[in-house]
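FAQ: What does the model actually see?

It sees only this:
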Amino acid sequence: MRRYILTGTPGSGKTSILHELKSQGYLVVEEAATDVIALEHRRGNTEPWRLADFIDKITRLQKQRQIEAGMGPDALQVYDRSPICTLALSRYLGYPPSVCLLEEMERIEQENIYERQVFFIEHLGFCQPTEARKITFEESLLFEKIHAEIYTSLGYHLIKVAPEALSGRVYSVMEWIMRLSS
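And it is asked to produce this:
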């Protein structure tokens, strides 16, 4: 099974690329943090990233989605973020990695869950705030840097996907996946 990760700064277009890949027939796994934030907002928590178990909720949802996707017949999967991104988020928020996150990091390493080549979607020069994304462009650049540092320190190779039209970015990712999977 080949599991590729799309990562990068918030607002870089990862989800748009993922949706296009899905329309091309790829099995894709959605980002967990956005769904955790949306659920907490519905519960009345306006700043869920301040909750003690925020990182653990994301980690558990990522693990659940990865395991469920692994039960299907698709031998190739594309993920919008990974537990490594959750480690970057934890560092960005100033939290020490939780036991839950550290155990998941150990599991994905031991079981060789994700491909070592990661699609690093570069920023578009701005960051549009959303209900889930409360970050300035300047803050997103720091977040991007933390992601790159953590992935490379863990031995992953970043395949940079430059800012351009969505179709060009999708084509670039698809071309790389074909090369890497052959």
